[in-house]
Structure formats: structure tokens, C-alpha cells
Amino acid sequence: MKPMHSCSMDSQVKGKRFLKIALAGQPNCGKSTLFNQVAGYKAITSNFPGKTVKYTLSKVNFLGETFEIIDLPGTYSLTSFDLAELESRKYLLSGEADVVINVVDASILSRSLELTLQLLELEVPIVICLNFMDEAKRKGIKLNGSKLSEILGVPVVECVAVKGIGINKLFLTALIAAREKKPGRKIRYSEDIEKVIHKLSKRINTVSKELNTPSRLLSIKLLENDDYFISKIKDKSILDFIENCQRELSEVHGRPSDLVISSERHALSMNIFEQVAFVGEPQTSIRDKLDDLLMHKYLGYVTLAVFLYAFFNLIFSLGRFLEEPILSFFEETLMPIAIKHVPSGLAQKVIQGLLEGVSGGIGIVLPYLVPFLLGLAFMEDLGYLPRIAFLMDTFLHKIGLHGKSTLPLILGYGCNVPAVMATRILESDRDRFITAVISTMIPCAARTTIIFGLVAFFISPNAALFIYLLNLAVVAIAGLILSRLLPEATPGMIMEIPPYQVPSLKVVLSKTWLRLREFIFLAWPLLIAGSMALSLIEFSGLDASINLILSPITLMLGLPIEVGTTLIFGVLRKELTMLMLIQVLGTSQILNVLSKTQIITFTVFVVFYIPCLATFAMLTKEIGYKRSLAAASFTFIIAFFTALIVKLFLGLTPLSLLL
Amino acid sequence: MWLVIDMLTLDGVKEGEKIKIREIIGGRGMRQRLCELGVIPGSTVEVIKNALFGGPILLKTDGGEVAVGRGVAKRIIVEAAS
Fold first, then answer.
1. Are residues A138 and A242 in the same domain?
2. Range of the domain at A263
């Protein structure tokens, strides 16, 4: 199979309509791995539930036929509990897909079947992909695929998507199923529930046609009190009728009607599972023992600390090793050539700015961001990230968040832009907002170069470590403040902890690329534009007025007035502050001009104040313009006071004793 | 009232114990998410980890492993598995 162009929604090319295959399944079922196997590097999979909020598609050539594969977001059920589920369901109900491949994790078949039972109600052709057959075998579960196929009335294909086993057969079966257009069998609930469903189906017949939703599916969802469908019904008498049906169920069963339906679905799935599975002795492997260490009460934190220390150390030593030759190529080879060919003032400045912007991007992306994102994607695919989230939940609770905020915060150390984007995995708007704001205060790769270049280089590595620890403390306090300002309780963490897996190279690469893309297409252009704007500011002599405007701040922090411009530069490009500092001070021997206290005060301020332009742009996309402005002001205030406190504190204490 | 005092919630279960879920006190959203992950009234689950310092609880259900925050766990009423 060969991937063709992707990411275009129209399937009409010269009037020909391609066959559409939708992939649906629960989070972590290996759906995106399957997609990547046939489509190339276009989607991401994750061990973090509910990642792919937008769906991805790709045109694929197979057996001389071109068709479209649509990778829907992973959903546990078809109830519109979150955005991803609502979007998936909308797509499935639109009738766009000719056939739905339901990817099922064979190692947790009974739970996975709960989604399958709902998909069968859609009345579209379905093929079941029994993925993770190897994992099921390891767990001692023997499955009878043909028996399952018989019960559900749909084809079942056994697969191991990571290894590419069964994939050709799967798509061949899907093509045949799409042509035959035969939907599967609807599994009947117990008699008393069926009666209510039947009664309700008859009453809502017209509505179901209007909503383009099978009446049986609609009835079940209404009995589950599905917000979306309930909101679509305007007729008061029908709403009363629905309420009566719900009450009937809850009175007979002694629990809310939605729970009656989901318990029933659970029981049905268990029942099917027992019919098709033979459960023997599981094979014990190292993986089972791994959690005894990695998630241990005490040792878990020790291993986490050691692991993170090693990880960041590796990234930074690798980064520094790569960064130097890249930057010196730009500065010593390209720049002189450019300057020689463009002799005049303004144009030369602009070109210089352009080159600096390009080199700044490459100097950070290649050496720091790429290894960082690769390592993170690897940990994620391995299954370690959700476990870190589990370990960190305790601490994040103290600042009013929960474990799921871990991923955005860790990502922040690479680049704040993908970090802000990653807050999408959080369910509540409040959690997303707080996490996004505090993740912009995490020192990204660019700010790390400042901490290393100024503090570690001119003072001591310990002083740099102090900045990092101070940063963590301030981030925690900032989180606490925001939680107090927005006291709404977080819904709490409910998160699947998937088994460890051998990461698949394709998935790791595609996930890295997806995050890198945010940097390349959003952050980098802004970085280059910012760089050119700076050249213009310099050329026009605006810097003097900027220094004057910012002088209240610089003076209060005990810094020379000239560093004012560097702060403006820092908003455009954080790592530029250091270069500009050298430029405005007129020497790279910074210790001759600035005291150690001044260096630390300056760095602390730069680490916290106002997210860079690219991060700000992403922030407005995720939390809106007004709230982004509020966030920027918030970080500015925090930066100012933290720097002030640090300055006063260092003024009182002999620095040499501390560092 | 004494019945309420006697009530055991998930956060009080020791590691390694198997318990039966009796009831989930909470909004529909939380209830459904828990059900989807196999934490369903009437089902039996095993507490694998009960983390320190008021941290989360790791459960083993029919559907794999699920972590729930302590706040959520306090709203899940359980009883000893028979």
C-alpha cells in the first residue's frame, strides 16, 4: 500500500468518489498505529487517552483501488461525554464512511466490546480488527474470532498492527464489506429494557429521521441522558415521554437510567467475551515486574528523578555538542557572505535579522527540540508517561490540578508552543487554562540557553540549578494562585494506565513530527519576523526610547537602563535576550559590567516574563485573546516580583556563601 | 445514620485487596467515564496501588488498569468482595 497526498477533505476528484474507510476504536487500541502502517507519518497515537481530537485522513492505494482512510479520535463509548466523542459520533452518523473498521484491543476484549455494541447500532457495515493478538496470548487469552464474527454478524480479522500482521487481509475484508453494505447484528438487551427502547423508538420516529440517526440508537442514547441529543429535542411532550421512560428504568433497577444502560452493555460484553474466549495461565514477563519498581510508593519517585535527570542531561549535552557547529556555520560562513553582497545599511540589517532568525530556529530545533521530542514520544509510546502522571498526581493536586497536566508541563521544557497545544488532553476548561498559563513559565530550550549561557557560565552550575528549582517553586505558587482565583473543583483524574509496549518507530516519528510541526510552522516564522523587526528597531534608533519607557522596571530591579531593549527583544525571541545583552553592554565579558546579583536578577526576570510571541499566538488559539492577555500580564507581574525578591534577598546575603 | 459511618469508600482500601463496587456518587460524566473503564457498580476490582500523600489509586478492572484521583475515589462506595 502506498500513501498518497493527505490532509485534504475533498474526496471528489474529477467527479469520482473514493471509498471511505473510517477507523474507530477506544483510546490505546492501536488504531493510530494501524493508520500509520498504511498511511505514513500522518497521525499520532498515544498512551495518553483521547489525544487525537482532530481526525486525520489519508488516501491510500490498495489492490489497484484508491480509497480514503479516516482515523477518528479514540473514544470509550458513543456518548457525547467529551468533544472527541461528539466529533467521532457526528462523523459516523453522517453516513460519510462506506465501512467502519472497529479496532479492538483483544487483550481487553470485554471492555472494548462495549464500544462495538454501540457501533453496531449505527447500521453501517462494520469490520472488526482484533488488534494486539500477541498481547492477548501473553495474557493467556485464546480468542475464537469466527465465533465472535458469528455472534456480532460482522467479519472479524485478527491483527498485530505494530508488526503489520493481518493488515492486508483487514483492508481486503473492509473493501468487500463496503461493497456488500450489510450492517451487523444488533445485540438485544434484557427484555424489560428492550420494551422501553421499543416504546421510545416508536415515539421518536420523526425526530430520528430529522437527526439522521437510527431510532434505536437514538432511544438508547436518550435513555442515557445524552446531552447533545436531549438538546436537539424541542418538543416538550417528547421530552416528558423520555423522562417517563428514564424513570421507568431507574425505578425497576434502582439506579439512574444511564447506569442501567451502561451496566447492561457491560454485562452483554462480558457475556460475549465468555462465549468467545478461553482464559488460561498468563505468561509472566519482565513488564509485570516493571511497575513494582517504576510505580513503587517510594522507589517510583527515586527512579523518576534519576530518569528525568539523565534524560535532560543527555538532551542538553547532546544539544550543546550540536549547537555550536550549526551556529558558527551561520555566523562565520553565511553572515559574512550576506554582508559582503548587501552593503547598504537598511537592507543589510534586514538580511542580518533574517539570517539570525533562521539560524536561531535551526540552532534550537535541531540540537534541543528534536532529541527532546523524540525522547518524549518514546516514553509516551512505551507507556511511561501515564505512569509519571500517576506519580505526579499527588503534587499537582496540591496546586489544584491533577496528573494529566504532567505532559504539557514536561513538554514545556522543550518548547512552550507544543506544551500549550498539549493542554487539549485535559477535560475541563479551567484545568486547560491554568495548565496552559503555568506551562508558559517553564524554561523552554531557548531560555535554557540563557540560564546556561549567563548563570552557569558566569557564576556556577549550582546557581543555574537554583534558577531551575526557583522556577519550579514559582510555577507551583502561580498554579496555586490561579486555582484560588478559579475555585471550581477539577473533575478529578480518571485515566487509563495502558500496559508497557515496545514503541513503534513509525509512531514515535510521526508524533515527534506532529509536535515539531507546531514549532516549524508557527513559532519559526514568528521568530524570523521578530528577528527582522529587531533589526529595524536597532536601525531606526528606537531602542533609546524603549529603554526610557522601561526604565522604571529596570531601575527597580537594579539593572542598567540599557537592558530595557533586550526585554522587548525577549518577547519576540527569548534566546535573543542574551545575545542582545552582550551587544548593548558592548562586551561578552559580562562580569565586568554586571554584578552576579544583577545577572541572576536579569535571568530570573527573563525566565518568567511574558510568553514569547509564538507561544502567545498558540495561547490565543487555545484559550482566546482576552485570557491570553491576562495570562501575559500575570506572568509579567510574577516575573517582576520574583526578580525583585531575588534581588533583595541576594543583596542581604553574601552571594559567595550561597553559590 | 450509623450505616453512613460504616460505609467504605475506595480511597480507604488497602493495596492488594479485591473489592466490589457498590455505588458511584457523582455526576453523570464521571459515572460514565468510570463505567467505560470497567469501574461499574457490581463489578469486582483490585486495588493495585494506593499512592502516598493523598495521591491517586491504581485499580485493576476487567478492562485493564485505571488510575483514579483520590477525590474521585472518595465518591466510590465499595464493599468487601464475596
1. no
2. 191-279
Say if residue A266 is in the same domain as residue A367: no
- Decide the pairing of beta strands A19-25 and A277-279: unpaired
The CATH number of whichever domain residue A69 belongs to comes to 3.40.50.300
Q: What residues of chain A lie within 8 A of the CB of B34, using their CB?
A: 494
Please give, rounded to a whole number of angstroms, the shortest distance from the CA of B80 to a CA of chain A: 20
- Is the Cβ pair A494, B34 closer than 8 Å? yes
Distances (CA, A) of A532 to A328, A356, A422, A536, B22: 20, 8, 29, 6, 64
* Weakest-pLDDT range from A219-233, A542-556, A596-610: A542-556
In a domain, residue A594? The reply is yes
Q: Which of A390, A392, A402, A425 to mutate to test the interface with B (most CBs of B within 10 A)?
A: A390
> What's the complex ipTM?
0.84
- Tell me the three state secondary structure of residue A105: strand
Task: Report d(CA A639, CA A559) in Å as an integer.
Answer: 14
Judge if A176 and A197 occupy the same domain: no
A76 touches chain B (CB under 8 A): yes
Q: Is B79 helix (H, G, I), strand (E, B) or coil?
A: strand
Lowest mean pLDDT among A133-137, A437-441, A456-460: A456-460
A379 and A481 belong to one structural domain = yes
- B55–A492 C-beta distance less than 8 A: no
Size of interface A-B (CB pairs under 8 A): 126
Q: What is the pLDDT of residues A167-180, one digit of tens each?
A: 889 999 999 999 88
Could you tell me if A235 and A330 lie in one domain?
A: no
Asked if residue A313 belongs to a domain, the reply is: yes
Instruction: Determine whether the interchain pair B67/A403 forms a contact, defined as Cβ–Cβ distance below 8 Å.
Output: yes
**What's the pLDDT score for residue A9?**
39
Number of folded domains that form chain B: 1
Q: Identify the three-state secondary structure at position A489.
A: coil
Residue A78 reports pLDDT greater than 80: yes
